[in-house]
Amino acid sequence: MELILWRHAHAEPGFPDLARELSTRGREEAKGAAQWLNERLPTPYRILVSPARRTQQTAAILARPYETVPALAPNSNVEALLAAIDWPNEKGVTLVVGHQPTLGEVATCLLGEPRWSPKTASLCWLKAIAPSEKTSATLCRTQATLVAVFTP
Q1: 125-151 pLDDT, tens digit each
Q2: Which residues, at least 6 apart from 116, have a Cβ–Cβ distance to it below 8 Å?
Q3: Domain ranges across the chain
Q4: What are phi and psi of 149, to 5 degrees?
Q5: Is the pTM of this model over 0.85?
Q6: C-alpha dihedral, 144 to 105 to 108 to 72, nearest 10°
Q7: How many helices (H) and strands (E) does the chain have?
Q8: Cross-strand bridge partners of residue 11
Q9: Strands 123-128 and 2-7
Q10: Which residues of the chain are under the pLDDT cut of 50?
Q11: How far apart are the C-alpha atoms of 56 and 41, rounded to whole Å?
């Protein structure tokens, strides 16, 4: 399984939190990240998106079908996200459009590296290590290797 974590683009402040929309800057950030993804996203893939308006708008700029997953909402956690995406069992590539700090915590947990704190619209692409390739203790069910990082 490959996992791409995409933090939503810059959003306007406001309330309620789930209704916050992308700012002008955010739309430009999302366009840059979407272009990068569209040039590289292999098939098969699936795109799972938080129900927050800003993540929906970020994903829509990619112009590909996606599924809204309530478990990816703000204030989710590593365990809920990994369960929602069926890590590491799902085949192909799963793109998650979500929120900080959860995305950073997932990347940190799977890589076993110092904390990743993505800027808005940043991407982190991970690949699960096959069980026979593991050389140390398992973190978060399965470890991963870093494929790429993109910041618009």
Answers
A1: 999 987 655 444 454 655 899 999 999
A2: 103, 104, 107, 108, 124
A3: 1-43+54-64+73-91+113-126
A4: -130, 135
A5: yes
A6: 20
A7: 4, 6
A8: 22
A9: antiparallel
A10: 134-137, 139
A11: 18
Q: Which helix (H) or strand (E) covers residue 59, if one does?
A: helix 53-62
Instruction: Quote the strand ranges of 9-91, DSSP E.
Output: 45-49, 67-68
Both tokens assigned to 14: 């406001």
CATH of domain 1-43+54-64+73-91+113-126: 3.40.50.1240
Is there a contact between 8 and 152 (Cβ–Cβ < 8 Å)? no
Amino acid at 78: V
CA angle 30, 35, 40 (to 5 degrees): 125
CB 49 within 8 Å of CB 62: no
Cα distance from N-terminal residue to C-terminal residue, the chain: 25
Residue tagged 């970020």 (tokens): 58
SS3 of 44, please? coil
How many residues in total does the chain contain?
152
The Cα 78–Cα 103 span in angstroms is: 8
Cβ(138)–Cβ(108) under 8 Å? Answer: no
Measure the CA–CA gap between 84 and 126, rounded to whole angstroms: 16
Number of other residues whose CB lies within 10 A of the CB of residue 96: 27
